[in-house]
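Friendly challenge for the regulars: who can give me the structure tokens for this chain first? No prize, just bragging rights.
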Amino acid sequence: METYLTEEERLEALQRWWKENRRSLIFGVLLGVAVIIGWNMWKGNVQSQNEQASNLYLQMLKATENNQIEPVANLGERIIGSYPSTAYADYARLLLAKLKVDSDDLPGAKAVLEETIAKTTDENITHIARLRLGQVMLASGETGPALSMLEPLSPARMGKFAALYHELKGDLYAAAGRPGDARKAYETAKEVGEVSPLLELKLDDLPAATTPAGP
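First reply, four minutes later:
Bragging rights claimed.
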């Protein structure tokens, strides 16, 4: 390390260093300030968007309670259009899908749920939308396509929704006239999840399992 014998030499060295490095130093400081300001503005903007979307969603829920169909639809479309990156856009889509099911608009509900699966980044929302989509397809008589959507799902992909997936598969198999597969799916649902009275009723409603005839 270089040693300076006098204060004057130290001062001259500092002045030389400042002349050589002041531009990059100033630029670095300004960049750091810009990053901090930008980050704070981004956080403020995200918070503001979430608050506005939350307020609209609360209005949507209130309109739903009052059975105000048109305001519910308008508020939902407004949330999705203005705040697509918030979780409330997902919630709005799910509520709009329910509204369409209640109005017997199964094709419309199917389209909304498919859009939810395509747009959401929340894994839980994906599962919920897929399960509801399967139920809508079951109600529409699309048992084959619904099973094609669900059957490739591995236990790992089903996650904590495994019991619901297997129960839905059982419903689809039963509707497709495949009671043996339905029974297996219901039994698997019992194994991986809580046993519900409704699930037991579904099992009881299936035709009795046949045993192979003896020689």
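Residues 51-140 form a domain with the Serine Threonine Protein Phosphatase 5, Tetratricopeptide repeat fold (CATH 1.25.40.10). Residues 124 and 135 are 17 Å apart (CA to CA). Your move, everyone else.
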